[in-house]
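User: For my dataset I need records formatted as: sequence, then structure tokens, nothing else. Please produce one.
Assistant:
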Amino acid sequence: MRKMILDRIQKENDIKELNTEEVEQLAGEIRAFLIEKISENGGHLGSNLGVVELTMALHLSFNLPQDKIIWDVGHQSYTHKLLTGRKDGFDTLRKFGGMSGFPKRKESPCDAFDTGHSSTSVSAGLGYAKARDLKGENYHVVSVIGDGSLTGGMAWEALNNASRLDTNFIIVLNDNNMSISENVGGLSNYLNTVRTREGYMNLNEGVKNTLSKIPVYGEQIVERVRRTKNGIKQFFVPGMLFEEMGLTYLGPVDGHNIDQLVKTFEKAKRVKGAVLFHVCTQKGQGYEPAMRHPARFHGAEPFEIETGLPKKKRLKANYTDVFSTVMRKMGDREPDVVAITAAMPDGTGLKRFRNMFPDRFFDVGIAEQHAVTFAAGLAAAGLKPIVAVYSSFLQRAYDQILHDVCIQNLHVVFAVDRAGLVGSDGETHQGIFDLSYLSSIPNMCVMAPKNKWELSDMMKFAVAYDGPVALRYPRGEAYDGLERFRAPVEYGKAEVIYDETEIALLAVGSMVKTAVEVRERLRETGYSCTLINARFVKPFDKKQLLELAKDHKLLVTMEENVKSGGFGENVLEYLNETQSRLRMLNISLPDAYVEHGNVDLLRAEAGIDAETIVKRIVAEYIGLQECLTGADR
């Protein structure tokens, strides 16, 4: 049996010991390995298959960890992890305590920067380059960014800033848009060679310096020559937009041709300034199902390799499915409703709305800030915009929500998907801050449904509401319990589900399901327990709190959000202001970043699972009883 080349990659730079034939063989082995492991554990497949050769070329061209490679988003860093000796870690990929699906500085010195959200790599790389120069150090900095991430405004802010750099900084544009592939050819290869040849670069600098010294007119001559040169290049050279910004443009180059990639990286190293290297790749390269269905294999669940179909069939609808159905029906009933997504029509459930109402659907690209202010403009003009976005991505547009929507009290609906713990993607994707940052904004109304029916009812309420409103719901299967409890949604009013005495559970959204289990366990041990569905986080039902204080000793708030600035803290502040004697226990997530892992396991670790909550409530209630008994004495 032939020994695998991949087994010889034990640490960074081992790939440089391979010959040309072995390098080609390694590419195939990496693809087979990734397909096998991700089919078992799930993960990002399409993006990783698309950058196998690009990553290998980077590792052949640069010395790690001295040189720095910064991956935008970072979900395409699997091959990078393999080439830095982390092959064994793939058995625990994205599992609790295991290897992250994204670059992590604490995981390896070869991971130069933690990433997870898009459009950040150029800014981070430029920071590295300037620090290198200020400290008098000598290493290369490479930022890899995709064409999708380049739609983010932050990327262009960084490119604009990078144009002023006079030392080497390499930006790799990983473009997997197949329409650009036809531009790869002999002309662009020839122009790349001419424009980056050492003699050309030296001559260019020499002529510029000489002309600049001419009294009075020197700088004008240099500028006129530059304009003439650029005018001619407009006819021949792709990427003139980047050239006009002050960046040296190389490419496009076939991103699956290791030899071409390595040669161009050598040229890129010689550029004094920021250089943009345009690479064309195929998402899902080498695996037919991923090439045919790139969206499905962006973040894949475990699947059958032969067919590409999921191993586990989904039997129940998830919250995104419910939202999708509601939006589809809403489109028929409400002609002023329009939908906005930031490059995620499938992930946020807007695909059906887009198909039925294409003129009322807007995909703005990876540009959450623009999406929110764009929605504000639509609302100001009399439409009813619904911005569907993941919780962790909406936080990128906090200022726009505050400044452009809420100050004007505009009717924009935020459908906040994947709120709470999301699991395997880890710290950068957990939606555990939205209740805090949304509740901090005046005029904002914040809601959370207890089950799939309430999500539908709250969407109808939100569209009829006049002002900014956010509706947050979790990832995963939609809860279908408590079907018979469906009181009309009234602004700022909670829903009493079970009315008893002694202990009151006041739960937000996804935690209502947990509260049902907690209540059952408490009643089994003899405790009387009220259960209330908060519904509204802002404004919360203050009248209901005052009612609870009459015949309850302990109030337990439950939320899948960090403690700081969350629902529980706001409730506690109100109780203190009213000098209520009602004791309160705040069940929430710790003020910390939650790493990757199975959601149920993470809930247990964070102490928001039913078993842990019951133990805390019983301990708190017993302590409270002892205090009251002591006071009576």
